[in-house]
Amino acid sequence: MRKSVVAIVGRPNVGKSTIFNRLVGERISIVEDTPGVTRDRIYAEAEWLTTTFNLIDTGGIEMSDEPLLVQMRHQAEIAIDEADVIIFMVNGQEGITAADDEVAKILYKSNKPVVLGVNKIDNPEMRETIYDYYTLGFGEPHPISGAHGLGLGDLLDTVVGYFPEQQDEVQDEDTIYFSVIGRPNVGKSSLVNALLNEERVIVSDVEGTTREAIDTRLRNDDQDFVIIDTAGMRKRGKVYEAAEKYSVLRALKAIERSDVVLTLIDAETGIQEQDKKIAGYAHEAGKAIIIVVNKWDTVDKDEKTMKEFEKKVRSHFQYLDYAPIVFLSAKTKKRLHTLIPALKTASENHAKRVPTNVLNDVIMDSLALNPTPTVKGKRLKVLYATQVAVKPPTFVIFVNDPALMHFSYKRFLENRIREAFGFVGSPINIFARKRA
Ligand code: GDP
Ligand code: GDP
Predict the structure, then answer these.
(1) What is the pTM of this model?
(2) EngA-type G domain location, by residue (predicted)?
């Protein structure tokens, strides 16, 4: 099911990121516990009552030196393109400014529902002033206080009320859905085109799944694949460039709909900070991941080159230790044939279920090999384990006291599970639970 998207727009310092953090709350802090993951806090899943949706803080998208009004215009445009509902935030302690008017003008022309949030209304007396904001033209102003968490419920009720009817996105069990992500010019379009032009590949159709994304279906040796969001990738002379400022956002949406994510690195320019951010999102989303080192043709090679490059990749992407690395050239098509098998393996592993009895044999062997730690005189006891989900494979280990399950011991068990079942390409989750 496609989740609705909500974007927060407003000039700097009105409190957008404060509200964003409140709404996505816990999830962000979990993410930041993952070592080595760097990210912009611009896009995250949020929840209101029984509805989950994706929230964009447009304020986090561009930190450029452009004049304020230009930045505001860009942010409003992104919100209009990407969101189902827009939260327009103003500062209730400052009144309406020229930048607010500028944003209002752009939002007004779009046909997207806009909910007006007047922030920093920290106490009931201040509510009197919010009627001034009717003049912005978006109906009832919602008084909120991000700092104190006031008024958010009413605001969200209105927002959720505008969500479009959910269309079920039918995903076929036997089809592998994957996306190709990476910073501009790593060769995403080239790779997609190279795959589509392979002799043994049949490109059957282009289907419009969501408003803005165009997916491409292809078949190779009886295996169906769908490449998510190939808009602008299939033609030369890209449409994509014009939309570069959305590229991260688009990547995030594509990741969400994928089973496997190909995260591209440019062998010519080497690994850059942005590569880590983009790959970090795929990791957090729990998708199977393949690291594709493209433009391998540009590298002078001897028998050690690949090993050395691999080492470099591993040290930059430590949290992706499960992701296989595929070296290829989209341009010359050298080694391109290694990609499809890697995709199949990663996808299978992402959906793999292991039998409970075998899992428990592995756990018990592990306990014998490396006895559980003792914390303050109390020893961790592991009772049994079970797999509770796939995509990604998720395991619950029942113990006497989850607090005794240290990161390092969990890591040890994860490695043992990986050795036993081979989850190459897929992340796995392990949770410790107290036995009821
Ligand atoms: P952004 O630039 O729009 O993302 O704004 P921030 O979320 O960074 O907030 C800007 C400043 O306003 C920070 O100092 C916040 O602590 C403050 N702030 C945010 N929400 C409120 C609020 O509801 N009341 C008050 N008084 N201050 C707030
Ligand atoms: P995108 O922005 O990620 O879609 O990247 P493109 O596919 O448009 O490629 C950017 C540039 O890199 C183009 O000039 C491509 O011809 C070039 N390129 C892509 N793949 C390769 C490759 O494997 N080897 C070499 N030498 N150049 C490549």
Answers:
(1) 0.73
(2) 4-167, 176-351
